[in-house]
Amino acid sequence: MLRIKILGPNCYASDRVREATLAAFERLSADHANLQIAVQHVDSPQEIQRYPALCTPGLVVNGALVCTGRIPTAEEVTGWLKEALRMRV
Questions:
Q1: 45 has which bridge partners?
Q2: In 3-state terms, what secondary structure has residue 75?
């Protein structure tokens, strides 16, 4: 299971990060039938400060901050999820 955190307040940018993440998951699910993700939205400033994010939105995959301060594309998120899968094996 991949653990995903979206850092930032409930806003347009955070919603777009979530959409990109779910689109990436759908793409990977075609090749990895048993792939599961847990997506958590983190809007607490204290929790966000646990990561080296200078601004939001942010995206964390399995504890590693992979993107901050912008909305990533679904293709970028797919790459980060693939990398996390390789590291998991």
A1: none
A2: helix
Contact yes or no for 20/73 (Cβ under 8 A): yes
- pLDDT class for 88, splitting at 50, 70, 90? low
Residue 7 is given by DSSP the state E
Chain centroid, CA 77 distance in Å: 7
The phi, psi pair for 5, rounded to 5°, reads -125, 135
The mean pLDDT of the chain is 94
- pLDDT band for position 16 (50/70/90)? very high
Beta-bridge partners for 42: 7
Q: CA 23 to CA 73: how far, in whole Å? A: 9
Q: In angstroms, rounded to a whole number, what is the distance separating the alpha carbons of residues 82 and 36?
A: 13
Distance CA 21, CA 7 (A): 13
